[in-house]
Amino acid sequence: MLKFLLPVNESETSKQGVIGLTKLINWYKEVPEIHLLNVQPPLRGNALMFIDKENIEQYHQEEGARELQSACDDLDRFGIAWQSYIMVGNPAESIVHYAEEKQCDQIILCSIDSGTVKGLLLGSVASRVIQLSTIPVLLIK
Theoretical Cys-Cys bridge with 132: which of 96, 99, 104, 114, CB 3.0 to 4.6 Å? Predict the structure, then answer.
């Protein structure tokens, strides 16, 4: 069975990626196994001195679950099974690491076509994933 990784957050771009995936799913002979990944940025600064590790982990899990909810609901509405996971770290590196660890066949990213100059400035995570990944990346515009 094919495994696809779809990184998601609460952005409109991410929502478009989920919708794009639902439109492409019929291209495949069998429905791929969908892995949703949310990458939370690590907390920085003085907060780490005053908050214990368990509360920080709980915070990341709650924020990640909140950011994943829309994608989970959309895939449920289309009858597409999914698994979700939350990581903390650098988004591009975490995406590639997860895809390699789970032996995904494809990473699906969404990028809104914003014109040439603006488009060059946006999508740094997508650009970095493409640079780092040995796994094929499908970019949905």
Answer: 96
3-state per-residue secondary structure call for the chain: CCEEEEECCCCHHHHHHHHHHHHHHHHCCCCCEEEEEEEECCCCCCHHHHCCHHHHHHHHHHHHHHHHHHHHHHHHHCCCCEEEEEEECCHHHHHHHHHHHCCCCEEEEECCCCCHHHHHHCCHHHHHHHHHCCCCEEEEC
What would the pLDDT profile of 8-52 be if each residue is shown by its tens digit? 998 888 888 899 899 888 888 888 999 999 999 998 777 666 778
> pLDDT tens digits, residue range 96-139?
999 999 999 999 998 755 554 444 444 688 889 999 999 999 98
The CATH number of whichever domain residue 60 belongs to comes to 3.40.50.620
**Number of domains within the chain:** 1
